[in-house]
Design a protein that fits this description.
Blueprint (H helix, E strand, L loop, with lengths): L4 E4 L9 H16 L3 E6 L9 H13 L9 E2 L4 H13 L3 E4 L3 H12 L23 H10 L4 E4 L1 H8 L3 E4 L9 E4 L9 E4 L6 H12 L3 E2 L8 H14 L10 E2 L1
Parallel strand pairs: 1-2, 2-3, 9-10
Antiparallel strand pairs: 4-5, 5-8, 6-7
Helix pairs in contact: 6-8, 7-8
């Protein structure tokens, strides 16, 4: 039986805070207690905010805490082709579509809809995307793409959920309301999530799923603020697997 694999995956867009340090120490200690492996991953897809000096500080702070990790360290910015390949596979399956509205335009659409009825929001409290780009004709969509207009690549949540079927995960920690044990995934609560943008071939949700799969991560230890994000990750694990995007059969356990 292979040893469990844990990971700590900070973004170098600032200095580590106490929450980061606790997460790193918890993962490292669990890896040692279980005879497992501990990986450090640098999630630096945000080129505008991630800085080399912050990455260097991460290494320095972790070493000061007595934490060691396997090398080489995986940097997301060095593996954009992996994420692009996954989006291409998902797109070929008809599970993705481009949306061209700006954030301000989306906020205006939501405000218009809230004038007559309440509008659904995701578990973090953000209004769900209205889905208007799905109504564009193929000709109009092609015209906008050819024009060079900025766009986001969104997951067709209804199509993905229908393809994936019922999903869940085993929670070995505790959710924000005491959830533990078998958890039913609710990816539809997040709406049409963004998986990539014109200028960036991935998003947090997509890259973390691809990275965990390629690195063989078996245990995901995260804060309660990311508890329901696991629903999206389970959906992406399943849809990417169906689309033959190179993901293994067994998702990591959550705690």
């Amino acid at each position: 039986m292979s040893p469990p694999v844990y990971r700590f995956a900070p973004s170098p867009n600032g200095y580590l805070h106490l929450g980061h340090a606790f997460s790193a120490l918890l993962n490292f200690d669990l890896a040692r207690q279980t005879g497992g492996r501990f990986l450090l991953r640098i999630e630096d897809i945000d080129a505008a905010r991630c800085k080399p000096e912050f990455e260097a500080a991460i290494f320095e702070d972790l070493a000061w805490l007595g934490i060691s990790w396997e090398t080489p360290v995986r940097r997301q910015s060095e593996h954009l082709a992996d994420y692009r390949r996954a989006t291409e596979k998902l797109s070929e399956q008809g599970l993705l579509y481009p949306s061209f509205e700006s954030r301000a335009e989306i906020a205006k659409l939501v405000t218009q809809r809230e004038a007559s009825a309440s509008w659904p929001r995701d578990p973090d409290g953000a209004a769900l995307y209205p889905g208007t780009a799905k109504l564009l004709s193929p000709e109009e969509r092609a015209r906008l793409l050819q024009s060079g207009a900025p766009y986001a690549i969104r997951l067709d949540i209804a199509a993905a959920c229908a393809r994936a079927g019922d999903l869940g995960w085993a929670e070995y920690g505790e959710g924000p309301h005491g959830e533990i044990g078998p958890i039913t995934a609710r990816p539809e609560a997040w709406g049409e999530v963004v998986l990539a943008r014109k200028e960036t071939p991935t998003s947090y949700h997509l890259s973390v799923v691809i990275d965990d799969a390629l690195q063989g991560v078996t245990e995901v230890v995260r804060g309660q603020d990311l508890f329901w994000s696991t629903s999206v990750h389970r959906l992406l694990q399943q849809t990417a697997r169906v689309a033959r995007a190179g993901l293994p059969a067994s998702p990591p356990r959550s705690r």
